[in-house]
Design a protein that fits this description.
single chain, alpha+beta, Nucleoside Triphosphate Pyrophosphohydrolase, six-stranded mixed sheet, three-stranded antiparallel sheet, NUDIX_hydrolase_CS, NUDIX_hydrolase-like_dom_sf
Length: 157
């Protein structure tokens, strides 16, 4: 589901006004930690990790696991939080304005074969960490943080 029902309900009240949203980015590695799950977005054609909006009251790590299952049809378990950042304000083609607080989690694949499961993506696959498809700078930074394998999460100052 591209836009959660709670966001649609909020939009009925606030129109296109800026909306502060909590979100997750899920970096899912295979058990050998040599490949990462990537999806090709249906709306832009860009390759990305799985991303999504945290539902009201939902635990962020559970949101990451849920989004991976919904978008790519695979199961995974969260390992740790690796990055926290505020994304720049954005305006969607329909005029809706939003800004996201993004929590990036490192997860481990536990089952299932990737496939575009919900229509948000046209492709889903594991790609070698040394040969990922082109991704924007934000996702490249997150992959680098994950590859450093440090226990602490990164925060912008």
């Amino acid at each position: 589901m591209p836009t959660p029902d709670f966001v649609l309900a909020l939009r009925e009240r606030i129109g296109h006004a800026p909306l502060w949203m909590p979100g997750v980015t899920a970096l899912v590695l295979d058990a050998q930690r040599t490949r990462m799950l990537v999806v090709r977005r249906a709306d832009t054609g860009a390759w990305t990790p799985v991303t999504g909006i945290i539902d009201p009251g939902e635990e962020p790590a559970r949101a990451a696991v849920r989004e991976v299952a919904e978008e790519a049809g695979v199961q995974c378990r969260p390992l740790r939080l690796i990055d926290v950042r505020t994304l720049p304000p954005m305006t969607y083609p329909n005029g809706d304005q939003a800004q996201y607080l993004d929590l990036c989690f490192l997860l481990e694949h536990t089952g299932g074969e990737p496939h575009p499961a919900d229509g948000e993506n046209t492709q889903a696959r594991f790609a070698p960490l040394d040969d990922l498809p082109p991704m924007n700078r934000r996702f490249q930074e997150m992959v680098q943080i994950a590859r450093e394998d440090r226990p602490e999460a990164r925060f912008r100052r």
